[in-house]
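Field reference: sequence -> structure
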Amino acid sequence: MLQLCARILSCDERYLDTFVCLVGPKAVPFTFHTGVVYARCPAFSETLLGAEYARGLEAANGKTYALEQESAQIFWISQVWLYTKELIPPPELLGRDVDGVDVRDHRGDHVRLLEKADEGGAARKPGWNDLDLVELYLFSRKHHVDVLANLCVGTLSAENARMSRTSSAAVVHRAWTGGYWSELLRDYLVFEAEHPLREQRPSHMLDAAAALPVQYIYRIRQSMSKAAWPPKPVEPPKNGCYHIHYGAAEQERCERTPSKVICGKRYGSDIYQMFAEVVTVFVDEA
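Structure field:
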């Protein structure tokens, strides 16, 4: 049977066609089988291959595509997933600490709103850098590879649960600057922080909050207030105003006015859709 399958695949020349992507400023080469990419990531194929996509598999065979703006590390992870259906960290991540030095050198990457102390001084096990998972998530959402995007969020959730922590400041900042593709990610980040906050108020939380986007803190407060009864209004932060005004009324109109929280469903349907077939979420609607 295996020999028969091998003969079929070898006869299907189109399935064995390949193309090359030169990724990042160093033009790191990645070779893909055209048939595999077409079958598993059709939207990405259409974006990447452009006009060749409409003409069929043979049009892309042997072509080279320059992707200078993409990350070679993210491409490495996505290529491994494409062929194995598993999310495997790149080699340089497997041997370093979770909060180890990162080549990105983002300021405040180690800051987290909530993080359980390492009891007994036990060394942390190597694992994912959560910013890599988020970059892969945004890449997947951009190219409509929803299965991979869900796997990224599920892995991020499992990793943070294992370490008893919330996502790093770098992840939160990336989520709030990622544009349209990061909207569902913001919902998850609020979700993962809200429930632990009902049980604990760590002393370092105020210091950590100073390194996080104000809209992130506001969304957490707003979500927590909806669960209270009666719901308490949360005043959103006001935008800075640099205009010249001649009275308080003009100043107030120029800034954001406080909005009242409307009692309703605690979470929108998007959060449930995002976690579909990824993790089991128990939500107390009371």
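Note: The longest strand covers residues 18-23.
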